[in-house]
Amino acid sequence: MQINQMPIEARPREKLLNKGASSLTDAELLAIFLRTGIKGLNAIELADTLLKQQGSIGQLFSLECDSFCQQLGLGPAKYVQLQAVLELSKRFFAEQLQREAVFDSPYSVINYLKCELQKEHKECFYLLLLDSQNRLIKSVNLFQGTINAASVYPREVVITVLKYNAANVILAHNHPSGIAEPSEADKLITKRLSDALALIDVSILDHIIIAAGNTHSFAEHGQI
């Protein structure tokens, strides 16, 4: 059945307008992005097929260009649209964090970091540099590769903090494995950086790990 043959209240666009975006399923939201289906599948059915093949929206959106364009009903134009949407989302959350104290926008912090880190296939270590009101000054991707105590240099962190005159920081990195639980190396890094930054009167407010759809906050678990 074509979407325009469905009852009006069941059509994704009309449903969004009447009930809000949160009322839509993942497949319905993706169908709005896709706009059209392919032969034998309407946009909702195509979206549902793509999600089942990839496992989740996050997995689909994390595909590199070549892999993305090989999927049913997708191509370079859709990849460009998607990257624009993701970048707009990232800038939206960054703008919120620049206006508000980070603890007033925990949702924005997590979503900003997800936008930054969701496509990374190797570990990346970010510094969120905050002013005295705990608003975002800048986020910096400081280290890449295997993140361990040997590869994260306190000296580089301190130099970056001083460069931007940050009052406090939030540490963040991703676990491409999909497991958000901190390793012993993660705990050691946090302690080393906390000790180094204390020498210049800068506090680490949190260390957030992003892993697929999961997150871990050191602050929430009393680990910082």
UniProtKB/TrEMBL annotation:
InterPro entries to which the protein is assigned, alphabetical: MPN (IPR037518), RadC_JAB (IPR025657), RuvA_2-like (IPR010994), UPF0758 (IPR001405), UPF0758_CS (IPR020891), UPF0758_N (IPR046778)
Gene3D superfamilies reported in the protein's UniProt record: Cytidine Deaminase, domain 2
Domain MPN: 102-224
Superkingdom, taxonomy of origin: Bacteria
Keywords: Hydrolase, Metal-binding, Metalloprotease, Protease, Zinc
Chain segments annotated as transmembrane: none
CDD domains xref list: MPN_DUF2466
Pfam families: RadC, UPF0758_N
PROSITE patterns: MPN, UPF0758
Family statement: Belongs to the UPF0758 family.
NCBIfam families: PRK00024.1, radc
Protein's name according to its UniProt entry: DNA repair protein RadC
Organism listed in the record: Pseudoalteromonas spongiae
Gene: radC
